[in-house]
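Re: that backbone. Tokens:
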């Protein structure tokens, strides 16, 4: 598991996925090759399922395009841990089933090489030898994440409702 550390604040959606590709890339595989290319050119080639991003304040500010959250979910990113998130990106990430954890203390404590784990049900982030808590996610949000996003969650509810 890799941890990609971007301690700067205000990493906007254009840094996560350049807007110039908005109308030419629409699927996860197409988006993947351009993820973070203007922030970290090595990211798309190095990221693996289960990896984590640690970042500063206001992560995901900027436009409301879904490409950044869709792409990060598609690659199997375990979580983004940041000091804070832009509201519109947070909502988009939930819709895609991407776990976002707000923990400024964990971000500040992180040092390159630390092992990082996240337990959303318990509301815990472990960074190296320390555990940081955050409000545990509501059951409904845990279900959305488990189902792989809001659309899958709604489809699951609808199908189960038809079978009843």
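Recovered sequence:
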């Amino acid at each position: 598991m890799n941890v990609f550390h971007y301690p700067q604040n205000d990493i906007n959606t254009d840094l996560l996925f350049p807007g110039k590709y908005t109308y030419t890339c629409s699927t996860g595989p197409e988006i993947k090759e351009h993820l973070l290319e203007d922030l970290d050119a090595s990211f798309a080639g190095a990221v693996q399922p289960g990896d984590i991003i640690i970042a500063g304040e206001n992560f995901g500010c900027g436009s409301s395009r879904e490409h950044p959250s869709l792409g990060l979910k598609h690659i199997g990113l375990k979580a983004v841990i940041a000091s804070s998130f832009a509201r519109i990106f947070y909502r988009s990430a939930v819709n895609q089933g991407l776990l976002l954890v707000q923990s400024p203390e964990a971000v500040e404590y992180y040092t390159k090489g630390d092992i990082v784990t996240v337990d959303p049900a318990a509301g815990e982030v472990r960074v190296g030898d320390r555990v940081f808590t955050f409000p545990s996610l509501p059951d409904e949000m845990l279900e959305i994440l488990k189902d792989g996003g809001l659309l899958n969650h709604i489809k699951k509810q609808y199908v189960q409702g038809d079978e009843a």
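The domain at 3-163 is CATH 3.20.19.10 (Aconitase; domain 4). Residues 150-163 form the longest helix (14 residues).
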